[in-house]
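Morning F.,

Quick status update on the modeling queue. The single chain you submitted on Monday has been processed. Sequence for confirmation:
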Amino acid sequence: MKMLIIGGGPAGRSAAMEAAQLDAEVTLIEKEHVGGTCLHEGCMVVCGFNDVVRFYEDSKNYQKLGIISQKHSIDYSEVTRGIKQITGKIANILKHETQQTGVELVMGEATIKEGMVEVNGDDYPYDKLLIASGSRPFIPPVSGAEHASTYKNVLDWKEIPPNLNIVGSGVIATEFASIFSSLGSKVKILCRNQFLSNIDPEFRDYIVKHLLPGVQIQENVQVQEITPEGASTSQGPVEGKVFLATGMTPNSEIAEGMVEIGSKKEIMVNEQMKTSNPSIYAAGDVVGTVGNTPVARREGVVAARNACDVSATMDYHLIPQSITLYYPVSFIDSGAEQSEDEFDVRIRGSAGPGSFWYALDGETGFTKISSDLETSEITRVSSISPASRTSIPYLAKMVKDGYKTADFDDFIETHPSTDAIYKLLHFLSKYG
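Structure tokens below.
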């Protein structure tokens, strides 16, 4: 079976390697660089910045405590150069890893035809086609939007902007506000509606107070015009660079006329990642689901298996999610309606690796678990902790597998740890 895959990001690459291992003849087409948005412009770039920011914030805290006397400064050009160098190295590793599975890699822009794909003037026939063409920043219809930046060009900035106005209210806006506020920018977040509206209000308050200090957040504000010098808004003018974090648009244009496309330009798929065309599958950001790398990888694997006649389905229940800040903010939600028997427990984070030197200020994080005391089911978990990003996915797996609060009575965690999740579960186990 001949399978073509368009897009070398997490979804396409995972699909390519899975299909190759299932004995398909696989060609992966990528127009720019293997690794996709996550590696070159998105989450890995945020990780690179955040590592620097974490060191910088720790340094300032140690100075305040009198532990170290040396004052540090940041060379932005060296940070961006280093991030590009590292992501380029990772891309080469991913390329080699993919080709080692027997996947043919073709660099160039694809055009879909009936039964084949054209790249660089050559036609590649297929039995099954997977579209994993990703997404791009959504640019709102605002006058002068061409003067604004997005996550796609922060690595090309020559310096840290003195004033940064971030238009948006979600994860991307929050992460870049944290980064550039720590680097020295005077940051404003301009929200059309409520800031982080999908986050537990207690955690939103903690983020604003403890993880975004100095960031000014304006809600219910409309951006009317963007200029090179700033922007005019419904709450008055703002000065400085404008950064758009207003959501994503799927790159579905490549499939127009071939498959059904939804109202938000997402390619419509079923739980097997099949499109309306029986020969075409889609996965990753282009299908407009959760929009993170692990989900994209899984969607790619599900698509590849079904294309190779191995039955698989995509499950979006209890997806672990996170926001990359000084302390990672991680959470899962079962989606269940809150019942009369639901009980919340909360605890301040522990002093340990990554938070020990903040114990004097009480800024060690915050964890909250919701459980139905009648059924002992864990319904929601939110944690702000150095360990939260590691703990949450394992907990999500255990909850999916049927674990109840009582099953954590004899749980022993690794020590030392800042993780408060299992302390709360041990407490709840007495009610299971």
